[in-house]
């Protein structure tokens, strides 16, 4: 209650925890709420387990939080990328880590481990809590240029997973909505509707395989009607087996049998990956769709991370952009006041949104090649990938790394 700007952060995922921890290092005390019942829901494999490859734009975040070494200890360096033809043989290998090294580190980490790293030290979270409403009157009219925006009255329900739940009312100067791709909260604010959304009509099962000797190599295999990816993290390998949505009822085990029948070459890692999916107990099926909001910021609310722009995993950039955006948002709020919040949020959106949408568009372009080419043309897709280097495919992402986000662009001119 004594903070100069009272901030509520909705969602204790990657974006929400990152911005909260950065704001706390500024001396503020944002309230962080999370719908999940307990912390294990965010960090254990049964609920949150999937793998991430983080590009170098995340390095400054870990530096700002003082957890770079903790991050390195709980992740693995990735250098090699291997692309396999639809029959299983290796078509090409690229030194992706070496390509990105001039900009920083490229590392694999489990999502739960990343959240634990970002939460190093003290990270208070109000679990089992969700945002119910925002006062509609706050958005009724544009404030005068010299007026101080009114606080936003919110209603938060605690104990959402129990019958003994309670509704609380409070006032905040700023509400940061960071509750993920399937956000329940963005519908409460102007601009929270979708500007565009891509549904690939594909999804996939997530599982874990034992670590092997190739801890620095990512493998991807685009087959006829399936996709298989293997992504190393510390002590194990994350597996994603993709399928068109109509194939989900078949179940992971039977779909693995179908995939094996289409492969003529089976490397030890691909064999282990398929075995891991087949033996996983009730593996999670992840629908592959994205989201782009029509607007990020109002005078007293802002969308962040997947709530603003949720990514397809094609370019492996979504989590990194969420962390970068969180850092830029925290910078825009540094030394601000309630009166300067609208200008601060406008600067943040003007600078960061084009970067995020450039990365998101790259993911969408790769999705067109991978998901929308008929299965019968899987061999043609392999030929295209064989001829087009990773450097060419990821050129827009590399451009973002060449021209990193600069917090000074969003900080108040008075700082």
TrEMBL record:
Keyword Oxidoreductase attached: yes
UniProt GO MF annotations: FAD binding; monooxygenase activity
InterPro entries: FAD-bd, FAD-dep_Monooxygenase_BioMet, FAD/NAD-bd_sf
Boundaries of every FAD-binding domain copy: 5-359
Signal peptide per UniProt: none
Keyword terms of this UniProt record: Monooxygenase, Oxidoreductase
Pfam families according to UniProt: FAD_binding_3 (PF01494)
PANTHER family in alphabetical order: MONOOXYGENASE, PUTATIVE (AFU_ORTHOLOGUE AFUA_6G14510)-RELATED
Name of protein: NAD(P)/FAD-dependent oxidoreductase
Lineage: Bacteria, Bacillati, Actinomycetota, Actinomycetes, Micrococcales
């Amino acid at each position: 209650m004594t903070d100069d700007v009272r901030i509520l952060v909705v969602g204790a995922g990657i974006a929400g925890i990152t911005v909260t921890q950065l704001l706390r290092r500024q001396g503020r005390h944002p309230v962080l709420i999370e719908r999940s019942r307990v912390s294990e829901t965010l960090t254990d494999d049964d609920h949150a387990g999937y793998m991430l490859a983080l590009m170098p734009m995340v390095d400054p975040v870990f530096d700002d939080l003082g957890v770079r070494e903790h991050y390195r200890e709980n992740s693995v360096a990735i250098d090699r990328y291997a692309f396999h033809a639809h029959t299983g043989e290796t078509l090409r290998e690229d030194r992706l880590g070496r390509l990105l090294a001039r900009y920083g580190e490229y590392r694999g980490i489990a999502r739960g481990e990343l959240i634990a790293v970002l939460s190093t030290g003290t990270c208070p979270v109000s679990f089992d809590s969700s945002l119910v409403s925002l006062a509609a009157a706050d958005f009724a009219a544009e404030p005068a240029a010299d007026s101080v925006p009114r606080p936003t009255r919110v209603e938060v329900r605690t104990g959402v997973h129990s019958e003994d739940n309670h509704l609380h009312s409070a006032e905040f100067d700023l509400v940061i909505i960071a509750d993920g791709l399937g956000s329940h909260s963005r519908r409460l604010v102007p601009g929270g509707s979708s500007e565009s959304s891509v549904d690939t009509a594909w999804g996939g099962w997530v599982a874990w395989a034992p670590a092997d000797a190739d801890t620095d190599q990512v493998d991807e295999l685009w087959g006829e009607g399936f996709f298989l990816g293997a992504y190393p993290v510390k002590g194990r390998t994350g597996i994603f087996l993709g399928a068109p949505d109509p194939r989900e009822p078949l179940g992971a085990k039977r779909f693995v049998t179908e995939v094996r029948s289409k492969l003529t070459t089976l490397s030890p890692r691909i064999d282990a990956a398929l075995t891991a999916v087949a033996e996983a107990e009730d593996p999670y099926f992840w629908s592959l769709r994205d989201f782009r909001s029509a607007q990020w910021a109002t005078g007293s609310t802002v969308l962040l991370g997947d709530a603003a722009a949720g990514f397809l995993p094609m370019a492996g950039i979504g989590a990194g952009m969420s962390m970068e955006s969180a850092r830029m948002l925290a910078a825009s709020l540094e030394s601000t006041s309630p009166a300067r919040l609208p200008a601060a949020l406008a600067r943040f959106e003007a600078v960061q949104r084009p970067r995020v949408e450039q990365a998101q568009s790259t993911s969408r372009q790769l999705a067109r090649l991978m998901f929308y080419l008929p299965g019968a043309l899987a061999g043609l897709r392999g030929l295209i990938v064989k001829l087009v280097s990773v450097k060419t495919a990821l050129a827009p992402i590399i451009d973002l790394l060449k021209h990193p986000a600069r917090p000074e662009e969003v900080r108040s001119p008075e700082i």
